[in-house]
Amino acid sequence: MLEELYYKTINCPVCKNEFKTLKVKRSRARVDKIDTDFMKYYKGENPIKYNVNVCPNCGYSAMDKRFKSMNFNDINIIKEKVFARWKGKNYCNERTLGAAIEGYKLALYCGELLNYKKYEIGGITLRIAWLYRLKHEEKNENRFLKYTLDLYEDAYSNEDLSYGGMDELTVGYLIGEILRRLGEKNESIKWFGNIVSDRRIRNNPRLEKMAREQWQITKGELKGAI
C-alpha cells in the first residue's frame, strides 16, 4: 500500500455496515499545480480518487461530505434501487483511475435517485471529467464537462447557492471556463464579462484575477480563430 494512504472506518447509514476504505493523508497531499477549472494535480497519490465512499455491502455511494446526509425516505430509496441489485464489488482498497470513475458514477446514480441539488450533482460530474482528463480520454472528459455545464447553468438560474459550499460567482466562473474548454468562445466571454463586472467579485481577488485572465485569453483565442 502506498505510504500516503490510510484506512478510515466508515459506518453506512443505509445498511449499518461498518467498513474500512482508503483515504489520502492530508499531511501527504501535496498539490503540484491547479488547472483553470480548479482541478488539482498532486505530486503523490491523488485524493480525488478516494473522495467517494462506496459501501461494499449495499452499494450506497456518496462523496465524504454527503455520505451521512440521509433521511428515512432516502434510505428506503437506496435499499430498493441500489441494495437490491448490488453485486458486492469492493472499492475500499487502492483505486485505479478507472475504479475511481466507477465510484463517482455510483455516487452520481445515488445522487440522482435522491434528488440532490443540481450544483451537488455538478460537483460529481466535474470530478468525473477531471479523472477522464488524467486518463487522457478527451471525448469522455468533454462529455462530462457538458453534463456539468448543463447542471451548473440550471443551478445558477434556479438554486440558492449561498448554502452550497460554493457561491454564484464561482459557479458563474466555472460555467465560463467550461464553455471555453468546450469551444463555445462567445458564450464564455459573456460569462467572464459578467463575472468581472459584478461588484461582489472584489471580495474574492483570486477569483477576480482568474476570471480576468481567462476573459483575456478567450478573447485572444476567438480573435486568433477569425
Strand order of the largest sheet: 1-2
Describe the global form. globular
Q: How far from one another are the termini?
A: 52 Å
How would you state the average pLDDT, rounded?
A: 95
- Spell out the helices and strands N to C: EEEEEEHHHHHHH
The residue fraction in helices comes out at 40-55%
Number of helical runs? 7
Determine the strand fraction and express it as a percent band: 5-15%
Give the biggest beta sheet: 2 strands, antiparallel
Radius of gyration: 19 Å
pLDDT below 50 for ≥5 consecutive residues: which ranges?
none
**Helix- and strand-based class?**
mainly alpha
- Please report the total strand number as a whole number: 6
Keywords:
two-stranded antiparallel ribbon, 50% helix, 226 residues, mainly alpha, 7 helices
Outline of this structure?
By secondary structure, the chain is mostly helical. It contains seven helices and six strands; from the N terminus they run E-E-E-E-E-E-H-H-H-H-H-H-H.
Write the layout of secondary structure elements.
Blueprint: E1 5-11, E2 18-24, E3 31-34, E4 40-42, E5 52-54, E6 61-63, H1 72-81, H2 97-113, H3 118-134, H4 138-158, H5 168-181, H6 185-197, H7 205-225
Antiparallel strand pairs: 1-2, 3-4, 5-6
Helix pairs in contact: 2-3, 3-4, 4-5, 5-6, 5-7, 6-7
